[in-house]
Design goal:
The chain is an alpha/beta fold. The protein is about 30% helix and about 20% strand. The chain is built from ten helices and twelve strands. It has a twelve-stranded mixed sheet. A hairpin with an 8-residue loop joins strand 11 and strand 12. It is globular, with a radius of gyration of 19 Å. The model has no long low-confidence stretch (mean pLDDT about 90).
Length: about 325
C-alpha cells in the first residue's frame, strides 16, 4: 500500500500511541496538581488501538511508541503490547515505550518478553529534591525501575526536560550519573505545550546553553544530524548525548512521526491545534478503506510545523492527554 507522505515531501515512519491520559506523576510542565481525566469510556479499547495501528503499519509505519500519561496505569498493558507486537508480520520493525518507570520494576521482564524493544524513561533531575519539586513525586521508585529494566536486558534511554530556575543546575550531575551507567541521555528544551499561559520563553534553556554548561567540564563534539529529533553529540569521545531543540533549532523539515491520543484523535504534529477523530469514525462504523483515506488526507495536509509558527499552541489538550 502507498506510504503516508505530507505535502512537504516528508514520509511518515513513526507513530506514537497514547494508551491513557492518566498519570501518577504531576510534572509541573505537563499537568496540574488535580487534573480532569477523560471519561474511561472515551478511551480506545485494545481492539480499537490494534485495528488503527494495523492500518498505519500497512501504510508504511515501521516504528510504534506506546505513551501516556503513564502506560503502566493501563490494566491491559501487556495484552496491548502483545497484540501490537503481532503487527511485525505486517511490517512493524520496532515497538517502544515511554514511561516514568516508577511502576515498571515488577513488570520489566514481562514487557521485554511481550515485545518492547526499548524504553524512554523520563528523568528530569538526579537530585532527589529537584526531582520532587518538578514531579511532586519521589525519585527512588524511578531509579529502581531503571535498574529493573537494565537487569531485564532492556535498552533504556533517558529524557530530561530542562527548565530555567527549576533543574538547569542539574544538567551536568544528571549527565555524569547517566555516563557512569552507560545510559544514553537526551535533553529536551522546554516546549510550549503545557497549560495555556504557563509557558514562558525565558524559561527555555537553549541547546547552546545546555552544551555550554556541559562544555565547562567535558569535551563535547557534534555528530552529523539525521532524521531523529535529537541533535547528536559525543561527550569525552565516547558517550552519546542528544539535545532536542524544538524551540531554538526546530527539526520540522525532517519530521517523520504521527501521534494518536488515548481517545483516537490523530495529530500530525505535536503543535497541531486540532486532531482528526479517528476513534470516533471507527466507532461510527468506518471500515479500513475509509479510515485509511482519512489518515492519508490528514497526513497530506500536515503543515510545516513549529518552525513556521513558533510559540504556544492554542488548544485545551495538554501533554498528559496528547501523549508524550
Amino acid at each position: 500500500m502507498s506510504p503516508l507522505i505530507d505535502r512537504h515531501g516528508r514520509t511518515k515512519r513513526k507513530l506514537r500511541i497514547s494508551l491513557t491520559d492518566r498519570c501518577n506523576f504531576r510534572c509541573t510542565y505537563c499537568m496540574p496538581e488535580h487534573p480532569d481525566w477523560l471519561p474511561r469510556a472515551s478511551l480506545l479499547k485494545r481492539e480499537e488501538i490494534v485495528r488503527l495501528a494495523g492500518i498505519f503499519v500497512d501504510h508504511g509505519i515501521e516504528q510504534i511508541r506506546l505513551t501516556g500519561g503513564e502506560p503502566l496505569l493501563r490494566p491491559d498493558l501487556l495484552d496491548c503490547v502483545r497484540a501490537i507486537d503481532a503487527l511485525r508480520e505486517r511490517g512493524l520493525s520496532r515497538l517502544s515505550m515511554t514511561t516514568n518507570a516508577s511502576r515498571i520494576a515488577p513488570k520489566a521482564r514481562e514487557l521485554v518478553a511481550a515485545g518492547i524493544d526499548d524504553f524512554n524513561v523520563s528523568l528530569d533531575a538526579i537530585d532527589a529534591g529537584t526531582f520532587h519539586r518538578l514531579t511532586r513525586r519521589e525519585i527512588a521508585p524511578v531509579l529502581d525501575g531503571i535498574d529493573a529494566l537494565a537487569d531485564a536486558g532492556a535498552r533504556v534511554k533517558l529524557n530530561a526536560v530542562v527548565i530555567r530556575g527549576d533543574n538547569d543546575e542539574d544538567i551536568v550531575p544528571l549527565l555524569e550519573w547517566a555516563m557512569a551507567r552507560g545510559l544514553p541521555l537526551r535533553y529536551i528544551e522546554y516546549m510550549p505545550l503545557d497549560a495555556p499561559g504557563h509557558w514562558k520563553r525565558d524559561a527555555v534553556v537553549s541547546e547552546a546553553e545546555i552544551l555550554a554548561a556541559i562544555g565547562r567540564s567535558h569535551r563535547v563534539e557534534a555528530k552529523p544530524r539525521g532524521n531523529d529529533p535529537a541533535t547528536p553529540y559525543l561527550v569525552d569521545g565516547h558517550y552519546s548525548l542528544g539535545v532536542i531543540s524544538t524551540v531554538s533549532n526546530p527539526f520540522c523539515s525532517t519530521c517523520d512521526r504521527l501521534r494518536i491520543t488515548a481517545t483516537g484523535e490523530l495529530f500530525t504534529c505535536l503543535f497541531s491545534p486540532v486532531g482528526m477523530p479517528l476513534g470516533a469514525r471507527l466507532r461510527e462504523g468506518a471500515d479500513e478503506v475509509a479510515l485509511a483515506a482519512q489518515i492519508a488526507k490528514a497526513v497530506w495536509l500536515k503543515d510545516a510545523g513549529y518552525a513556521s509558527r513558533p510559540g504556544p499552541v492554542d488548544r485545551p489538550l495538554t501533554m498528559h492527554a496528547m501523549g508524550g
